[in-house]
Amino acid sequence: MSEIFSVDSTLPNSYIEIRDFLCNKLNDLIKSNKDIVFLCIGSDRSTGDSLGPLVGYKLNFISRNNIHIYGSLENPIHSQNLSQFIDKIYSNFKDPYVIAIDACLGKLNTIGKVFIQEKPIKPGLAMNKNLPSVGDLSITGIVNISGNFEFLVLQNTKLHTVMSLADCISKGIYHFILKSLDNNPKYFNNTLDTINCL
Length: 198
Description:
198 residues
């Protein structure tokens, strides 16, 4: 059984914990220049399911040879195109390390928490969709409570909860990449405004 890392996205320094976890877990991959793909899954048409596209949107400015971001508000990866994107990733990169990011429903006391596990994610499970599992590592944010009528639950999820999770995850990933580069900014197409918006 894989180790489960969790952090409360509402805490001020939660993104630092995500940064440090990713640094410890992925340090050898960074050193070997292995392709790392962040696959941000979800829909921009449902508040509760928009976590992945929001994270992708916030990380869109990152430019580094072996760090790749797929999925954003402009080009979301959802149930209709997930399989094509998976095929595209594995045809473009040789043995990539895929980190899948998605929203999840959970228990009341887990809403707003981020969970990271070294195992694939099963997108669309709450909606009873038969989608392929994906990811060597999964990052999930609990956006609302699971139970009956998941579609309505996702549609009526608080945007504040989703945004807090997206901010926490994207800042954690950004600072992981920055730390892994020894604070060398030359790999980024950034401005001060872009970084501050995270």
